[in-house]
């Protein structure tokens, strides 16, 4: 058994094309001055796209573009605060983030995949992948004696797996046959077996999943995962996640809650 801990790496995100955004603003009549102001202060990430997309609804890029609009919220912080308070969550769906979620148990991955809306998932296939080692996280809440017992149980199951594996002439089998046997043998491995997935989610979904999965009643491992996601989102997207506040929990993890609640 190889001890591991959940690791979260943000591997991608929505970025905008500044020239194309300028061209779009120019073709709907936004002045050069207003274009310059927007492009100089908004950055290139999903926040810029979400605000850009949201502003098309009322053509609120500058006062007067829509004759009904005489004042606009110039500061993106004010713009986002208003969006969140009104519950205009749909514009948050324009921005995506992409994550490598590594060394999490099948327990945790099963919980992550329950979030259907606004996500995309690719997970290591244990029909194809015959694990050369059993990676496993032992929950910190167990005492020493329980940890030893759990480690022994995992090692016993790994031994049984290796015994079965040894009896198979892998080199002589077709890929299809190997796949069938790999899938059959995995059934004796523990639910806590670590796996890897690539998970993509839009910002509307992320705000929801961070709240749900860092709640004190959530499972500790998924809270460890979404604590890492929350920290990265708060650092990288202050307009979108600046209203999240953290509460320390006795197990060393945190619970994150938004103060401005968008409808989901
Ligand atoms: C602390 C905790 C304990 C849990 N315990 C259990 C358990 O014991 N057993 C169990 O089976 N599950 C359990 N779950 C999982 C839970 O029931 C949900 O399946 C999971 O959290 C996905 O959330 P969601 O339904 O909000 O889906 P998401 O896909 O995240 O959807 C987001 C939102 O979109 C809307 N939406 C999504 N799909 C539809 C739809 N088809 N129709 C209408 N609106 C939709 C809803 O408003 C939903 O809240 C638990 C979750 C948590 C956080």
List keywords for this structure.
4-stranded antiparallel beta sheet, single chain, two-stranded parallel ribbon, 8 strands
Please, could you describe this protein's structure?
The chain is α+β, with helices and mostly antiparallel strands and 264 residues long. It is 44% helix and 17% strand. The protein contains ten helices and eight strands. It has helices at residues 18-27, 32-41, 46-56, 76-86, 106-112, 144-166, 175-185, 203-213, 220-236, 238-241, and strands at residues 2-3, 7-13, 96-105, 119-123, 135-136, 194-202, 244-248, 254-258. Strands 2-3-6-4 form a four-stranded antiparallel beta sheet. The two termini are 41 Å apart. Bound molecules: flavin-adenine dinucleotide. Flavin-adenine dinucleotide binds next to helix 8.
Number of helices: 10
Mean pLDDT: 96
Helical/strand content category? alpha+beta
Radius of gyration of CA atoms, rounded to a whole number: 24 Å
Bound molecules: flavin-adenine dinucleotide
Give the tally of β-strands.
8
Largest pleated sheet: 4 strands, antiparallel
Strand content: 15-25%
> What is the approximate shape?
elongated
Fraction of helical residues? 40-55%
Across the major sheet, the strand order is 2-3-6-4
- Specify the oligomeric state: single chain
What is the N-to-C order of secondary-structure elements (H for helix, E for strand)?
EEHHHHEHEEHHEHHHEE
Low-confidence stretches: none
Distance between the termini: 41 Å
């Amino acid at each position: 058994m190889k001890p591991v801990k959940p690791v979260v790496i943000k591997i991608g995100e929505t970025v905008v094309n500044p020239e194309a955004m300028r061209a779009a603003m120019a073709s709907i009549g936004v002045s050069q001055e207003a274009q310059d102001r927007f492009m100089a202060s908004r950055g290139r990430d999903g926040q810029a796209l979400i605000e850009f997309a949201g502003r098309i609804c009322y053509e609120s890029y500058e006062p007067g573009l829509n004759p009904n609009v005489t004042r606009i919220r110039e500061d993106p912080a004010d713009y986002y605060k208003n969006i969140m308070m009104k519950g205009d969550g749909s514009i948050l769906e324009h921005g995506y983030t992409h994550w490598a979620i590594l060394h999490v148990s099948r327990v945790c991955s099963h919980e992550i995949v329950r979030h259907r809306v606004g996500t995309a998932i690719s997970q290591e296939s244990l029909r194809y992948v015959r694990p050369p080692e059993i990676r496993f996280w032992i929950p910190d809440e167990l005492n020493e004696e329980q940890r030893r017992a759990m480690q022994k149980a995992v090692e016993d199951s790994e031994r049984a797996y290796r015994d079965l594996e040894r009896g198979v002439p892998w080199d002589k089998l077709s890929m299809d046959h190997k796949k069938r046997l790999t899938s059959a043998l995995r059934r004796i491995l523990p639910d806590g077996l670590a796996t890897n997935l690539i998970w993509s989610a839009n910002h509307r979904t992320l705000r929801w999943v961070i709240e749900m999965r860092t709640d004190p009643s959530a499972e500790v491992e998924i809270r460890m995962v979404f604590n890492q996601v929350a920290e990265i989102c708060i650092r990288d997207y202050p307009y979108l996640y600046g209203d999240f506040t953290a509460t320390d929990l006795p197990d060393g993890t945190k619970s994150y809650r938004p103060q401005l609640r968008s409808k989901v």
